[in-house]
Specification:
This protein is globular. It is built from nine helices and 14 strands. With about 350 residues, the chain is an alpha/beta fold. About 35% of the residues lie in helices and about 15% in strands. Strands 2-10-9-8-5-3-4 form a seven-stranded mixed beta sheet. It binds pyridoxal-5'-phosphate. Pyridoxal-5'-phosphate binds next to helix 3.
C-alpha cells in the first residue's frame, strides 16, 4: 500500500496513526464487540467517547468554563444561517467583514435573517489581503461581528484577533481550527466544519459563550437552536457518532504531539518552506499580501498557465495530489493542514524545482 501526499482543501488528509487506529478498532471497539458506527449514541460506550472528545478539545483550545462546546451537523454553510438565527438576539442586524468567497457566502445567507452591514471588504484588492482593523466601519448596534479567520479558497488569514468592543466576535474557523493556539475568550462564537483540519465531513464544531444562548429567532429549528443543543449535551438529535469518534482520535494525536503550540510551530515551518520557495522563483508566484498569507491554504500560480495541466499531471505521477486551484482563483492550491507532514511540503517544492528546470 502506498499513500499519496494529499493537498486537498477538504475533505482533507487525516493523520495516518489515526486511520490505523480506527482500522484496528473497526470491528470491536475496546472489547465492546461493536464498531463505533453500530453503537447507540446514548449507550455508555459512545457517551464515554463523546465526553473524552469534548474534554480533549477543551484542553487543546483552553476553552474557558463559560463556553459551551457543541457537536452539530450541517457544516459551516448551515452555520451561515444558524449563526444569525441564534446570534441576532433582538438586534436588527450584524456586521460582516468580506475577505473572500467564504465570508461572502456567510453574509449573503445572513441577509435572510437581518440587516447585514459590510464593515470592510477586500474586494478592491482582489481579496489578496485582510482589511486592517482601523478601516472597519462597525455598527455599535450590531448583534455580532462576523469574520472568516482563514479564507480557504483565497488563502488569506487573520494574524490578529480584531477588537470589536462589547459586540461579540463570531468567526468561521473551518480551515484553521486547531492549527495554532487561539484565545477563545476574545470570541463570542467559533464555528467550523470538521473536514478540513479535524476529522470526517458531517461534524460541525461550535464553541459559544454561555451568556449569548437563549435568544434564537422563534423560527429556529430546535436541532439548530444552540441553547437546545447545549441543554441536551449535543444529543438533542442523533449526533454524527463516527465523525465524533474520529475527531476524538485526532484530538488524542494532537495532544501526543505537544498540542497546539507544537502544531503552530510545525505549520509555520511547513508554510515557510513553500512560501520561501515561491518568493525566490519567477516561474511561480503567490499573489497574497505577505502579512495575510494563510499557513493552511497556499494558492500559487504558474506564470505561464498553459503549463498548468502538465504541472498537475507531473505532480500526480510523484504522488502529490489535489493541487488544482479553486476555479475562482485558478492556478494551484496546496492545503497543508495539521496532518500534512513536512516531508509532503518538501516533496512538493522538490517537484516544483524540477518542473521549473524542465520548463523554465
Ligand atoms: C469548507 C468551508 C466552508 C464550507 O463548509 P461545509 O462543510 O461545506 O458547509 C465554509 N467556510 C470555510 C472557511 C470553509 O473552509
Amino acid at each position: 500500500m502506498s499513500r499519496v501526499f494529499n493537498f486537498s482543501a477538504g475533505p482533507a488528509a487525516l493523520p495516518e496513526p489515526v486511520l490505523r487506529r480506527a482500522a484496528a478498532e473497526m470491528l470491536d471497539w475496546h472489547g465492546s464487540g461493536m464498531s463505533v458506527m453500530e453503537m447507540s449514541h446514548r449507550g455508555k460506550e459512545f457517551m464515554s467517547i463523546a465526553a473524552k472528545a469534548e474534554a480533549d478539545l477543551r484542553e487543546l483550545l483552553a476553552v474557558p468554563a463559560n463556553y459551551e462546546v457543541l457537536f452539530m451537523q450541517g457544516g459551516a454553510i448551515a452555520e451561515n444561517a444558524i449563526v444569525p438565527m441564534n446570534m441576532l438576539r433582538g438586534h436588527a442586524g450584524a456586521d460582516y467583514v468580506d475577505t473572500g468567497e467564504w465570508s461572502q457566502r456567510s453574509l449573503k445567507e445572513a441577509q435572510k435573517y437581518g440587516r447585514v452591514n459590510v464593515a470592510a471588504s477586500g474586494a478592491a484588492g482582489g481579496y489578496t489581503s485582510i482589511p486592517p482593523r482601523d478601516t472597519w466601519r462597525l455598527d455599535p448596534e450590531a448583534g455580532y461581528v462576523h469574520i472568516c479567520s482563514n479564507e480557504t479558497i483565497g488563502g488569506v488569514q487573520y494574524h490578529f484577533v480584531p477588537d470589536t468592543g462589547a459586540v461579540p466576535l463570531v468567526a468561521d474557523v473551518s480551515s484553521e481550527i486547531l492549527s495554532r493556539p487561539m484565545d477563545v475568550s476574545k470570541f463570542g462564537l467559533l464555528y467550523g466544519g470538521a473536514q478540513k483540519n479535524i476529522g470526517p465531513a458531517g461534524l460541525t464544531i461550535v464553541i459559544v459563550r454561555e451568556d449569548l444562548l437563549g435568544g434564537a429567532l422563534p423560527c429556529t429549528p430546535s436541532a439548530f437552536d444552540y441553547a437546545v443543543v447545549a441543554e441536551h449535551g449535543s444529543m438533542f438529535n442523533t449526533p454524527p457518532t463516527y465523525a465524533i469518534y474520529i475527531a476524538g482520535l485526532v484530538f488524542e494525536w494532537l495532544k501526543e504531539r505537544g498540542g497546539l503550540p507544537a502544531m503552530a510551530e510545525h505549520n509555520a515551518r511547513k508554510a515557510a518552506v513553500l512560501y520561501d520557495f515561491l518568493d525566490q522563483t519567477s516561474f511561480y508566484e503567490s499573489r497574497v499580501a505577505r502579512d495575510c498569507r494563510s499557513l493552511m491554504n497556499v494558492p500559487f500560480h504558474l506564470k505561464n498557465p498553459a503549463l498548468d495541466a502538465a504541472f498537475l499531471k507531473g505532480a500526480e505521477a510523484r504522488g502529490l495530489v489535489q493541487l488544482k486551484g479553486h476555479r475562482l482563483v485558478g492556478g494551484m492550491r496546496a492545503s497543508i493542514y495539521n496532518a500534512m507532514p513536512l516531508e509532503g511540503v518538501q516533496a512538493l517544492v522538490a517537484f516544483m524545482q524540477d518542473f521549473e528546470r524542465e520548463h523554465g
